[in-house]
Description:
Blueprint: H1 6-37, H2 41-51, H3 63-70, H4 74-86, E1 90-94, E2 102-106, H5 108-133, H6 139-147
Antiparallel strand pairs: 1-2
Amino acid sequence: MTATAPALTALAHGWRALSLLHDRIEAHLERFLQAEHGLSVREYSLLDVLSRQHDGEGGHLQMKQVAEAVVLSQSATTRLVTRLEDRGLLMRYLCPTDRRGIYTNVSDAGLKLLEEARPTNETALREALQEAADDPRLESLVRTFETVRVPAGAAA
């Protein structure tokens, strides 16, 4: 297959469209979250992921799992956790059953900020998708995105 084969061209176009949609949405969210709450998209995502932890079996995430959930390297995730901890939005503690493990929880201040930011995130996401739907290159992706349903318990 050559580089100009129709299947490769379709894949390349699809990837560019998906990348464009992602970048537009992320930029839109970033502007609103920063302006309204002083949070980056990554900070919001980290608070959101950590706020969904629970005390049951497998309920607390290790740093590797957190990094996977927010799509960052472990070192970048650690720096992000440290930044939010310095702001009083997170706290770390030793795992009670394995002293080598360190868990991270959202503080009360972090939970309050997250709850204030959730409606902003939702509104900005809807706006970004509406704007993208007006772009012929992205319209079908937006329609597909809006039909995606995540099974209960599968969201991190």
